[in-house]
Write a structure and sequence with these properties.
The chain has about 550 residues and is of the alpha+beta class. It has 4 domains: about 120 residues, 3-Layer(aba) Sandwich (Udp-n-acetylmuramoylalanyl-d-glutamate--2,6- Diaminopimelate Ligase, Chain: A, domain 1), CATH 3.40.1390.20; about 100 residues, Beta-Lactamase (2-Layer Sandwich), CATH 3.30.450; about 150 residues, Alpha-Beta Plaits, CATH 3.30.70; about 100 residues, no CATH class. The strands form 3 sheets. Strands 1-5-4-3-2 form a 5-stranded mixed sheet, sandwiched between helices. A hairpin with a 4-residue loop joins strand 6 and strand 7. Helix 13 crosses helix 17. InterPro entries: CdaR-like_regulators (IPR051448), PucR_C-HTH_dom (IPR025736), PucR_C-HTH_sf (IPR042070), PucR_dom (IPR012914).
């Protein structure tokens, strides 16, 4: 339906047969909400806008200045147009007034013969009132049709298309992630033009050609629904239709959000049960065949991702990171499931390619993940990854999960091994971590290293650093001195001191292996204290 009555529409009514539009032809599409008969010169405060003014010209007679003032006031008051009865009190229209009206697209219509203003106002007011009743009826019909659509539609685009077709008007939807949708679709050039119109009218309240309504969902603004017209003004009826549509769109998005949350909760519950070992191989395969029928996994593993501080990351941040991670590793031949648990993101990787290349493909994916701009939220931090054992049977994924957690725990204590994302690559630290759970490592460390530790503490020496470097260089004095940036005499003096404290046989094979193991254990326990917030003190 046509949701408004324009000046041009009224010119087709009775008593407008013998007229002439002498100015403002481009403004004939102006909306008319009421009709007034005015024969005074001060009318600025008498109008609300969109009134069609009928006048005999009595107020100004042949006074061009008063006439000009009246027209200026009508334009300023957003009147729809001016109809003048020529002959009785006004015989001509000055060119200045015609130019002013044309410049503001303000219609001026001349009645060339005497007309009954009472009958005109009665006719137009009846038309306007009936139109208002019709609009109320149409609004109710629109709402009912929209509510019926909500029962069956599966995509919000159907709602946007519905309002576009009903009002025959351009619809623009700006979502919270800054995605902009145009209904109907337009060219890139037209998109820029429409966005410029929206931006230019953003400060106008209300705007004559743009109207917008926020889409609220659970107290949060998810989108902004905008209607825009370049051919006519936005009417009250347009605003009401926009309001009903925004409400329907919010209801649809809420329903969709509820369904997605329910599905996500069910998936999370199932995945957690999988990680806890509650499913058989057959039930896991059935679940995957239903949800990911195209995937034929050749094995799987768990990857834990720690983001510090986790509470500073919004849902949008986490969603973006998960989507980006999934994109990166799908290119490497993996399918991912993700779960959020306390301060971690848990990813279950299903391998779709050759089992022998899974680790290399993971390394390539991790490199791409960390090299790109994946630092998110205000406190930007690089993700810490821990990858558990690769398992060929999917029922063994709980073992991969436990080893992934162990990898993260070891990484916290061994910061110098940041490149050890894989449980398989931690080697000696896996053994140290296991022994730490069952033995008093400090007592064993003291048995081997206490003299050196006490010496460094007492004399602020660097024997521990020297010992570690000397062993790493396989006893090469030249290489050790180079790495420590000391002259050979200084190194010889330190080695003599180490021989006194540890024994001259400390480089013998078996004792050397034990000392190296204790050095790693010492760093492990020292890092454990740092993780717990304790002071860095000697063991």
């Amino acid at each position: 339906m046509k949701s408004y009555i324009s000046v041009k529409d009224l010119l087709q009514r009775k008593h407008f047969e013998n007229i002439e539009v002498v100015a403002g032809h481009d403004g004939l599409a102006r909306i008319v909400k009421w009709v007034h008969v005015v024969d005074v010169t001060k009318i600025r405060n008498l109008l609300n806008g969109n009134e069609l003014i009928l006048s005999t010209g009595l107020a100004w007679k042949e006074d061009k200045v008063s006439f000009l003032s009246v027209v200026e006031q009508l334009i300023e008051s957003q009147a729809a147009g001016l109809c003048i009865e020529i002959g009785t009190y006004s015989s001509y229209l000055p060119q200045e007034i015609i130019d002013l009206a044309n410049g503001h697209h303000f219609p001026i219509i001349l009645f060339k013969q005497e007309v009954p203003f009472v009958e005109i106002t009665q006719d137009i007011h009846t038309l306007l009132i009936n139109h208002q009743y019709q609009m109320i009826s149409d609004l109710e019909g629109y709402s009912q049709a929209l509510n019926k659509k909500l029962l069956t539609i599966e995509d919000h685009n159907e709602i946007l298309t519905f309002i576009h077709q009903y009002l025959n008007i351009q619809v623009v939807t700006i979502f919270g992630n800054h995605d902009i949708q145009f209904t109907p679709k337009v060219s890139a050039k037209e998109q820029d033009e429409l966005l410029n119109i929206i931006e230019n009218h953003a400060l106008a309240s209300p705007s004559p050609v743009v109207a917008s309504m926020p889409i609220q969902l659970l107290g949060d603004s998810k989108a902004e629904l905008i209607i825009l017209s370049r051919d006519r003004q936005i009417t009250d009826f347009d605003q009401l239709i926009l309001d009903r549509t925004a409400t329907a769109l919010a209801q649809f998005l809420l329903r969709k959000h509820y369904v997605e949350e329910k599905r996500h909760a069910e998936e999370t519950e199932w995945l957690m049960s999988w990680l806890e070992g509650e499913y058989s191989e057959e039930s896991i395969q059935e679940y995957l065949a239903y949800h990911t029928p195209a995937v034929k996994p050749k094995g799987a593993f768990v990857c834990l991702c720690r983001l510090d501080p986790f509470e500073h990351y919004s849902n949008v941040d986490l969603t973006y990171f998960k989507l980006y991670t999934r994109t990166v590793f799908e290119q490497q031949g993996f399918t991912l499931f993700s779960i959020e648990k306390r301060d971690y993101l848990i990813f279950i990787f299903l391998n779709k390619r050759n089992t022998g290349t899974w680790k290399q493909r993971m390394k390539e994916g991790i490199q791409k993940l960390l090299q790109n701009d994946t630092k998110i939220a205000k406190n930007k931090s690089t993700p810490v990854l821990g990858i558990g054992k690769y398992v060929e049977e999917l029922k063994n994924i709980p073992f991969s999960y436990q080893t992934a957690m162990e990898t993260i725990r070891i990484q916290k204590r061994c910061s110098q091994h940041e490149g050890s994302y894989f449980y398989d690559d931690l080697h000696i630290f896996r053994l140290i971590s296991h022994l730490h759970k069952h033995l008093d490592l400090k007592e064993i460390i003291d048995e081997y290293l206490e003299p050196v530790i006490n010496y460094d503490k007492k004399y602020n020496g660097k024997l521990m650093e020297t010992l570690k470097t000397y062993l790493a260089c396989n006893g090469s004095k030249q290489e050790t001195a180079k790495r420590l940036y000391v002259v050979r005499q200084t190194l010889y003096h330190r080695i003599e001191k180490l021989e006194k404290l540890l024994g001259k046989d400390f480089m013998n094979h078996e004792k050397r292996l034990a000392i190296e193991f204790m050095l790693h254990s010492y760093e492990f326990l020292l890092s454990s204290k740092q993780v717990k917030g304790a002071e860095q003190e000697s063991l």
